[in-house]
Amino acid sequence: DNVDMKERTITIDHSILYRKIDGKFKFYAKEPKTKKGIRVIPMTDDVYECMKELRKERLKRPSTVEVDGYKNFVFTSISGKPLYPINVNKILYRIVREYNETAEEKLPRISNHIFRHTGCTRMGEAEVDLSSMVYIMGHADAKRIQKTYDHVNLKRVRNQMQKLNHKKLDDKEEKTG
């Protein structure tokens, strides 16, 4: 079990993939691409609360499914199997489609991978330091994060520029104080 509720951490040391192997589709476990991909991530309070709810739901329908020695999956189907990535995307597409039917401001089509981009962008907006972002995302260095995931927007740049105003005030106080 890679979710430690006592320590409030999630250990990332494998991925569960679903591919055709020897003519049959099956789930299998795979290690991360690099050693940096293996990490322990502290949960935010929101994630911790969601994990508590998911655990309650999982207790109602325990799973006996095991994939290459891994079990107790967090996100499962009614049958207890890990969710198929394509089904996760179908669910997301349906949610967006149903939302857009009545919403004035439409949502774009989203997939499960977009959550990595969104998560990294939100960390940037929250001013999580770059070294922590590199660790959380499981990359070897900051280049990929800066190039691919860490999206900058006008609001974020404005907030950064406001720091210069505060810095000027701090400098003036030091000179007069």
UniProtKB/TrEMBL annotation:
Family: Belongs to the 'phage' integrase family.
Keywords assigned: DNA integration, DNA recombination
GO MF assignments: DNA binding
Residues in Tyr recombinase domain copies: 1-162
Matches recorded under SUPFAM superfamilies: DNA breaking-rejoining enzymes
One Pfam family matching this protein: Phage_integrase
Example GO BP: DNA recombination
Identification of the protein by name: Tyrosine-type recombinase/integrase
InterPro entries: DNA_brk_join_enz, Integrase-like_cat_sf, Integrase_catalytic, Phage_Integrase
Source superkingdom: Bacteria
